[in-house]
Prior knowledge:
Layout: H1 9-20, H2 23-35, H3 39-67, H4 71-78, H5 86-117, H6 128-138, H7 142-158, H8 162-189, H9 194-202, H10 212-225, H11 232-237, H12 246-274, H13 289-296, H14 300-334, H15 338-358, H16 374-401, H17 404-410, H18 419-441
The chain binds phenylalanine.
Amino acid sequence: MAREKWASKLGFMLAAMGSAVGLGNIWRFSYVAGENGGGAFLLVYLFFVFVIGIPLLLTEVSIGRKAQSDVVGSFAKLSPGTPWFFSGFFGVAASFLILSFYSVVAGWSVYYLWKYVSGDFFTTPEGGYEAAFGGFISHTWQPLFWHALFMVMTIGIVLVGIKKGIEAANKIFMPTLAILLIGLAAYSLTLEGAMEGVRFLFQPNWSALTNPAVYLAALGQAFFSLSLGMGAMLTYGSYLSKENKLPSATIGIGVMDSFFAVISGIVIFPAVFAFGINPSSGPPLVFITLPGIFDQMPFGGIVGLVFFFALALASLSSAISILEVPVAYFMRIFHWSRKMASVLTGSIMFLLGLVVSLGYGVLAGVSPIGDRDIQESMDFIASNILLPLGGLAMALFVGWYFKKATALEATDLTGNAFGPIWYGIVKYIAPVLIILIFLNAIGLLGM
Ligand code: PHE
């Protein structure tokens, strides 16, 4: 059977944007930015996205398009008889770890959406949102139901295929998401006191830049948010043909991803400041703080409904790109049908996620790595170790294993004035920076 392809380059771009824009832009970005000084963090983050992230995105997509295979197969095909294909295993492993907790958190968003649809969250629940959230995530089977539902939706899209499943879904999701988030941002800006939030987001507090942790947080956020290093972008690139030019496409994806991060910052921070909440309240910002804020707003119930609908959509379009990584791999090595590969892989991820979810309930107190709970431990191994290692392998592969002419040709940069700049970044700058994140992740720098 011929390998599947995107129907159009636009379809690929929407799917790649769908992969990039997700919990990372809304849930993770807002609390990491809030904890790391707002405007200063935004500047450093944008600097990393444009200087390192987009060049690496181009690199990752180009490997897939050149090889026309999955994350393991691409390395094997382009460098037969060498151990490079091992780097693909980091991606496959990361996909299992990330999707199993991603689906649990995305399941929480779907639950919140339901609570707004049913009207329960139109008024503050008894004991407040903190108690409501805590009670929900520590319940044994309730969050599992929403995690299962989210996983079923993810599998349902992936098993249909590239064109009719992933591409078609993203063609609906992405424009909807854009309209919803821009609408929410516009509304947020009309709130009294909103300007303080805008200032927090756009007026850099330069003193935050003296803290080395800000740079590392920003670099890590750029990686996670652009879906880099796992092979999701590589696998999506493998459904492209040579006629689709990559540099403009990858710049478009990077710009859109940052745009959505900024937009969700504009949704969240003005509201946070208008209601006098501390922006550095951490991961619960979205699930505890925001509903409390929505409650006090005019039409807050509708705003909450739209917000959690957008969050669920954004998570779904990212989750399908994560599931596609092992699905493409298993379809090739085991000759499974797409249906079989999606259902089996998704079910294993559901089971792994079960452990993550129970980590907030009956398994509370289990901390596999240091003082991290189960979810944080999986995020740590995947995001801080496997993603940087995968990204490093891709940069070294294209920068050092390929000849310069091959690298430029693979990325459609032959004869392009940006070619040498891109090459220098991928060969030297990106590897050095990734090694720095990696050392930080395993605590060698102690920063
Ligand atoms: N980029 C996605 C987000 O921001 C998460 C993701 C990470 C997706 C790695 C694919 C690969 O939510």
